[in-house]
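fold-stage: in
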Amino acid sequence: MTTVPRTPPRPDRAQRRPSQPHELMGLLRELDVRPPGPARFKLVSRWAAKHVWRVDVDGEPWAYIRSLLGPGAQRPDRWRHLRLATLLHEARVGPRVLGITEESEALGGRAASVEAALKPIPRAELEARADEAIALLARLHSDEPLHRALAVGMTESERERLQPLPRLFRETRERWFEAVVERWLEAGLGEINQLSEVVSDLINAIEALECCNQDVNHIVPAHNDPNHGNFMVNRQGALRLIDFEDLALNTSVADLGVFLTWYADRDRQRELLAHYALADPETILERMQVWVPLRYLGISAHWAARLTRARDSEGWAFAADSVDEWLRGAAELVAGGPVPAHLDETLRAVHTSLRGRGPLLAPAE
């Protein structure tokens, strides 16, 4: 008999309610976590399935509390990511875990963890320490306990990551030629016909590359969002990563490609990959030619969808600019230089047309 996966129950009103300061203090006592002074709590993230609180002591961040909207047993995938924080710390990748519980009495049965706060790092400093960042990613990618933990009980979407390039090509096409096209046509945005031609040309050019139309055979525990805001330093000044919502088994290029493209000059990328002993630098650079422009196309699709939901001129303009910026970035990467003239002309015309419009939805009351 086939077992149908049970959908976790939706949080009730009490679970959706943010915890109160006295409840959060109760959690700290329950976990025997002792702040070095009077603690103040600030809700910094409120997701559909998780709340994140910052714990300030003497006006400075001291810890973060991450709580699910229910017990860990009700949300096994979310709970798995929460408890993997211990392995991430042991691998010298993530922050120190001060305490964790699958079902906190103080929080009405919610699963929660408390992690030591890290300090942000300026972008210029991260770029100057790019060799350390690559070594940090290498530690993440090579951690066997984390690899084994992620391989157990994988979701369907996580299993698809084991064929990363076919999945990424498929998702890019679906997001653009189904989701975005449908949204724009329903909204009366005829510019989608021109943009679809640009996206189609770029995908065809990427597919024509012979370097890596086969599955990537180096599957590792990947962060999947190595942007500047997710790099921090601990009290000793060592680089660490935060925000592991997208942590999953994936190709190493999912992390390396984005990081190197955003934070390292092209003539320095090969040198930096000397700090990554898990794969040949030439292979990584070759695969980046496919992986990174596809990621850019996916990001541009995100902003194309956001544009149809904009409710004010500022949001509309930012979304229109972002669509243009990420498509141009993809075109430059594919061309290995300036945007080809025919694509540049089309993108300019679409951007000008969109900028001459305004939000499609009425402002929120």
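fold-stage: in (second)
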Amino acid sequence: MKFNEDFKVALSQLPSVEKDRLLWRLIKRDVLLARRLEFELLAPYAAIDKRNELAGEIRKKIAYFADRGWRISEVLTQCRGFSGDITRHVYITKDKVGEIYLNFVLLQEAFGLLNNPMFKYSWRNAQKYVVYMTNKLYRTCILIDKLHVDYHIELEDDAHTLGEIIGGNDKLMHYMIGVLFDVNWLLPFDFPEDLDKHYKEIKQMGLLR
């Protein structure tokens, strides 16, 4: 949002008490902004601590879903909630590495659930779940290309683990072949430079709807 320069000058000239009053009114209406300011001003945890805390929560809850025999549609609803948690984490902490790492964790747990013999589901009922997760997989891998190469080493093991989880499920592997996602991209951590273009073409073909 752009503001008139005269407005900026007038705002800067407001008395401190008035600025404080306006600030409080604004952050009370925007919880995410308030959390972001709290993090930047007080930093009660480092971004990596918050990242690891959220990763642990995702792992614990998806394990809980499996143990309690949740339906796959219910798990999908919760995973959408986790995606929102990741978005909020990134907004508050500006943790771009954490965005990819946390999505890898979510994908590991979500796809791993399909390999869990204790979790009962039919492949037909899992279609919506798998489509959602595969879209997330594509978008997460596209983010890697936007990240400085020095950070890649932090993500390689998790990408490899994810590739092994997908590769351990024949139906899931068959599905990935059908939507033109090469699991071998994950194993050596080597993604096409035009992956974003490739993904758009896949969407246009209607393969991930």
